[in-house]
Amino acid sequence: MGRWHDTGMTLKERLRAIETFLRDLWAGALAFPWPTTAITLRERFREDRLGITASSLTFTTTISLVPLFTVALAI
User: Fold this and answer.
1) How far apart are CA 41 and CA 63, in angstroms?
2) Cα 27 from chain centroid?
3) Residue 36 belongs to what H/E stretch?
């Protein structure tokens, strides 16, 4: 019975598989419409005031961690 890392592949085969995976990943990243996505994201930040929403969520999360740490230190 083999271990989880024992796939029966040689080192060369593993390296080729990794190389193929990375090449496919890079090709997919290059094919993605990055400029359109960036423009849409910028417009959404302006229209929906997402910066204010994100900062308020960060503030609320930070404030809610104080009681958690207090309880953790008390235990």
Assistant:
1) 28
2) 19
3) helix 34-48
What distance in Å separates the CA atoms of residue 33 and residue 10, rounded to the nearest whole number?
37
Task: Report if pTM > 0.70.
Answer: no
pLDDT tens-digit profile of 26-55? Answer: 999 999 999 999 999 888 888 878 788 889
Angstrom distance (rounded) from CA 54 to CA 69: 23
In our burial notation (b when 16+ CB lie closer than 10 A, e otherwise), range 10-26 reads eeeeeeeeeeeeeeeee
From CA 42, how far away is CA 34, in angstroms rounded? 12
CA 42 vs. chain centroid, Å, equals 19
